[in-house]
Design a protein that fits this description.
With about 325 residues, this protein is of the alpha+beta class. Helix content is about 45%, strand content about 10%. It is built from 11 helices and 5 strands; from the N terminus they run E-H-E-E-H-H-H-E-H-H-H-H-H-E-H-H. It is globular and about 70 Å long. About 30% of the residues are buried.
């Protein structure tokens, strides 16, 4: 069976929710199993984000999987910027190469591609894991999962869903108390807090930049308290924030989260029903094209393998 086609958008800016699980869903990423490895993963996330045209909007690292909310950019091609990013990559490689201007187009395609970014992240984390454990073998259980996110409102819901992972798993009462998610990392002012690039979207766009992190942390915690009975925050907000969801929105959000829609990987879109349908149809179209191409390839292969006179004699019958 062929691999499922990946839906990726060629927009100037596209948003994705991605997730990768460990092999056999083992707790390979736990502190007990590999001390300090989550910090290594976070550093790899940052390094790859600095190289690729990819911004990490939210992240969480659990003991057997991780989630990222990503913004993938396709800016105008800038050879000078491409060279800077290329040279950053070479500093991390054992056998660095020299920049070749004639390869700018291919490097632009590579550095703006979601799949190449995820391949770099997962291969580098796997090698780092094996070095730390002095072992060989697979860390990740298969291809990463991905969903295209429709708009800013949907992006915020995915970010919130990602931050709530430790609360749902029962390892933290609130997201900001968990060190290995972006909200907790921002709140505790960890050294690698700059991994996150909070987008100026929706209500975050009207918040002063120096208040954006704190506002985001409070919103994520407040949403957890409203969505999950087990969540608790020591100082509940007494005022109604302008970015709080109304009852209808909160009900819809609670339903989506309860049903796991942000990580329902059977569909590759997250947002309105119309958007999800469009993404589903795009996937079906790609499958049809792949099927037709495979059929054509088989026919060409049979034609090359058959005798030169085979076609004529068949036609004469």
């Amino acid at each position: 069976m062929s691999r499922r086609p990946r839906i990726k958008l060629e927009h100037a800016t596209a948003y994705y929710h991605v997730m990768t699980r460990t092999a056999q869903q083992e707790m390979y990423l736990s502190e007990k199993n590999c001390p300090g490895f989550k910090a290594n993963m976070l550093e790899i996330f940052k390094n790859m984000s600095d190289i690729y045209y990819v911004s990490i909007l939210a992240w969480v690292i659990m003991d057997n999987h991780y989630h990222l909310c990503l913004e993938v950019q396709h800016p105008p091609k800038d050879p000078a910027d491409l060279q800077v990013r290329f040279e950053r990559l070479q500093k991390l490689n054992k056998n660095p190469r020299r920049w070749q201007p004639n390869l700018a187009d291919s490097w632009y395609e590579r550095l703006t591609d979601l799949s190449r970014f995820m391949s770099s992240v997962n291969s580098r984390t796997a090698r780092a894991f094996n070095r730390a454990r002095e072992t060989k073998g697979h860390l990740w259980g298969g291809r990463y999962k991905s969903k295209v996110i429709e708009n800013s409102a949907a992006v915020l819901r995915v970010m919130c869903y990602i931050e709530h992972n430790p609360v749902k798993a029962g390892v933290s009462k609130v997201p900001s108390a968990y060190r290995w998610c972006s909200a907790g990392n921002l709140k505790n002012k960890q050294p690698l807090q700059e991994v996150v690039a909070l987008p100026a979207i929706d209500f975050l766009g009207i918040v002063e930049p120096d208040q954006r992190k704190q506002t985001y942390i409070e919103w994520v915690d407040e949403m957890a308290a409203q969505l999950y009975p087990i969540a608790d925050i020591s100082r509940r907000q007494t005022e109604a924030f302008s970015h709080n969801l109304d009852d209808r929105q909160l009900k819809a959000c609670r339903r989506q989260f309860a049903e796991g829609e942000p990580e329902n990987w059977s569909v590759q879109g997250f947002g309105s029903p119309a958007f999800i349908l469009a993404i589903t149809l795009a996937e079906k179209f790609k499958i049809q094209k792949m099927t037709m191409q495979r059929r054509k390839n088989r026919e060409q292969k049979r034609a090359r393998a058959s005798p030169a006179t085979g076609t004529d004699s068949f036609a004469d019958q």
